[in-house]
């Protein structure tokens, strides 16, 4: 266990930093968990990952909330529906293989990437307003859909949330990142509602990795607030490309 922790602690720190800055830390953290914890089942690996991620997200939310005003009236209901969607997504894993949805996700991700790439000013200015009833309904629907995605497929939820907060609510990248942390924390917590009673969380691993994720979250949120929208946009595009490549390869591999 000590050997495994030595390998995973720095990776958890890096994943926590990326999650706090832009989302997508799972692209690094989850493959590392599979590579090191070879005797663990997928559900046990998800338990370790989600538990440590919730710890990191909670601290990054505190970091952002201390520096900027967050639209709690919008993001708390969105987080609640995301919680419900994620729980439904986890339960659906036993009924339908998740790779059936990957081609759809790949198309959506490619469109999202192209839209951001060819609109350099996208997300550079915050032109948001006080949320209307229509905004609240839109947020609830988006939370439910992305929560389901997080529970059912997983990687890249934070990046999707970031894009949608900019696109639909006109936040800049920095404020959208902060809002996405709240919703993403809700989706991760929902999976734990299913995994903890099932005994799928190894706390001797999850708690130290969560502490590393907390340290990473502090560093990542600090860098995001210091680097600003331009820096976050570049990191977002980089992670979106990596996620697109990962999902495309997993889809092709199933067909081979």
TrEMBL record:
Belongs to the 4-toluene sulfonate uptake permease (TSUP) (TC 2.A.102) family. The chain crosses the membrane at residues 70-88, 100-118, 139-166, 200-219, 231-249. It comes from the Bacteria. The lineage of its organism: Bacteria, Pseudomonadati, Pseudomonadota, Betaproteobacteria, Rhodocyclales. InterPro entries: TM_pro_TauE-like, TSUP. It is found in: Cell membrane. Pfam families: TauE (PF01925). It is a multi-pass membrane protein. Keywords: Cell membrane, Membrane, Transmembrane, Transmembrane helix, Transport. This is Probable membrane transporter protein.
